[in-house]
């Protein structure tokens, strides 16, 4: 009888574990807007891609039109990031030469709010200081010609890169030229700069400021064909979870956890 009861208890524990309630979703803010990209479609691709792969609820804000110097209303708010667990910066505002505005954008991240920086975010807020580059983890001021490029994994042992594979092709691309990888950054993948015949870091992690805020970065994502690529979305999802310190099977949905 004791053995039967024990077996039933083990079965009950197994069944209830298998059907455990999912975790409270991560609340992510995706910021888009500015020059040169199809943000109207890309924000939807990112939102759906993350939600399909993990327990991440994305709220998106697209402001600033297609100008490069828009001071968007979102950042006018004193506590613009309140209520969010992470911010995904995918905006393209390069011509705002005002260090105080940059500080305003960086304020929650200096206080410890995790972040993701995507593509043109690296070229934003050129205010004559290095404060934005320090946050991103790389310094980049230009990009090369448009061509598809192979993304080659550099650190296969990092949890973000698990399951991504040795290499994948972007289809189309706009490879950013990296002048400096900050000492707080850790490269995860590279791509070949055909013009200069050198490798450029294109996926990385960063620890920002005194709080060592987690930042995941990628310069990929100019064209829709790249943004909708499953490998891009897999990497972005895992990077977002890593930045939140939630890269585990609880937050990954079944097909993405394999």
Structure description:
This protein is α/β, with parallel strands linked by helices and 258 residues long. The chain has a single domain, classed as Rossmann fold. 29% of the residues lie in helices and 28% in strands. The chain has eight helices and 13 strands. It has helices at residues 2-18, 39-53, 73-76, 99-110, 131-136, 224-227, 230-243, 254-257, and strands spanning 26-34, 56-62, 86-92, 115-118, 138-139, 142-146, 150-153, 167-169, 174-177, 180-181, 185-193, 198-208, 213-218. Strands 2-1-3-4-13-12-11-7-8 form a nine-stranded mixed beta sheet. Helix 2 (39-53) packs across helix 7. The two termini are 39 Å apart. Residues 1-18 have low confidence and may be disordered.
> How many DSSP E strands?
13
- CATH third-level topology: Rossmann fold
The percentage helix is 25-40%
CATH superfamily: Class I glutamine amidotransferase (GATase) domain
The percentage of residues in β strands lies in 25-35%
Indicate how many domains the architecture comprises.
Answer: 1
Order of strands across the main sheet? 2-1-3-4-13-12-11-7-8
CATH architecture: 3-Layer(aba) Sandwich
Quick one: overall form? Answer: globular
Radius of gyration: 20 Å
Q: Specify the CATH class.
A: Alpha Beta
For the sheet with most strands, the description reads:
9 strands, mixed
**Poorly predicted ranges (pLDDT <50, ≥5 residues)?**
1-18
Ends apart, CA distance between termini: 39 Å
